[in-house]
Amino acid sequence: MYNLVTVRDTIRIPPRLFSASLEESVLKAIQAQYEGRIDKDTGVVITVLNPREIGDGKVILGDGAAYHDVVFDVLAFKPELHEMVRAKVIDLTEFGAFLRFGPVDGLIHVSQVTDDFMSYNDKAGMLAGKTSKKTLKKGDEVTARIIAISMKDSVTESKINLTMRQVGLGKEEWYKKEEQKEKKVKKEKK
Hints:
By secondary structure, this protein is an alpha+beta fold. Helices cover about 15% and strands about 45% of the residues. It has helices at about 20-35, 170-190, and strands spanning about 1-15, 40, 45-50, 60, 65-75, 85-95, 95-100, 105-110, 120, 125-130, 135, 140-150, 160-165.
């Protein structure tokens, strides 16, 4: 989930940024300190916006930098447990598929792709269902649900597990076919 979060922090402005205006220097220093980082409460910081309320600078003896108290906003992405996400398949292996959503990647284990037995076909580069004939290929767009989250200090160390084993999840063509089958069954019962 994307969130706009207001942050108050003391920002170190290194001497190399002193030649720019204070606003530019503060923005560059905040971007270097925050963007791309993970905060366990905020999530993955995508970008820094709107630095404001820049306090008077302080200099610490032995450090040539200036320190300013600043209020600013960050746009962050924090995955939530049980959240539904639209994702793109970026890689397939015999144990599952890696999906990208927002600035993070997640893993959907082969047992969580569908209720059907899925096997990996290395030559075709896809996961295929034994009886349902459902396929999953690199580049496919899917809907999945987050079932486990382990956020670490970096995006690459973090782990997010997903599932597509409930109605309405997976590739759009999968659940459209299921809807058509249900309509046909209802029509036949009438």
